[in-house]
Amino acid sequence: MAKTLEKTRKQISKKRNGAITALHANSRDSKRLHKAQVRDDRLEEIARARRKKDQPLLNRVSFFQEFVKQQESQLLSLEAIQEKISEFVHQHDEEYAEVRSTRRPGRPASMREDLLRMKVAALEKEHRDGFYMPDLTSETNVQLLDRWEGSWSYLPNLSWIRISATGNVRPAKFPPSE
């Protein structure tokens, strides 16, 4: 990324006829370079945090995109969608059971075990209350999901719904507010 630093370095090198090697530690130009570097670092950290926050939703969409591709972009029944949601919710169960079985008796749970337990519990709660996902009952939405290339900017084009464990379907907005 580092666009601010590159621009600042270019401006200073033009001013100094192409040489930035001899800058005094407290000069205005060195302070400008330092400020530009700090800004670029801060922006990169913000972008990294945003990508980390967005990753679970991207994984969810790619999971359902693979399901749509397996079904050859056909409309799906609510029962098939519920089965796939259940599969998504319980995708970490094997790993959780393995981590739990490798723990010696009387020892506290490992951090990985705690994280998996919390992740599964959160997904189960979301499934009970209303699982957030792209609408797979609409033909145009299924086609849009099939063409999705993995970018965050394409996701607002899809229509989103919340499906509860009882089969209650209600529309939702993107990005999720919860």
Automatic annotation (TrEMBL):
It comes from Rhypophila decipiens. It comes from the Eukaryota. InterPro entries: Tma16, Tma16_sf. Pfam families: Tma16 (PF11176). Belongs to the TMA16 family. The lineage of its organism: Eukaryota, Fungi, Dikarya, Ascomycota, Pezizomycotina. This is Translation machinery-associated protein 16. GO terms for cellular component: nucleus. Residues 1-37 are annotated as: Disordered.
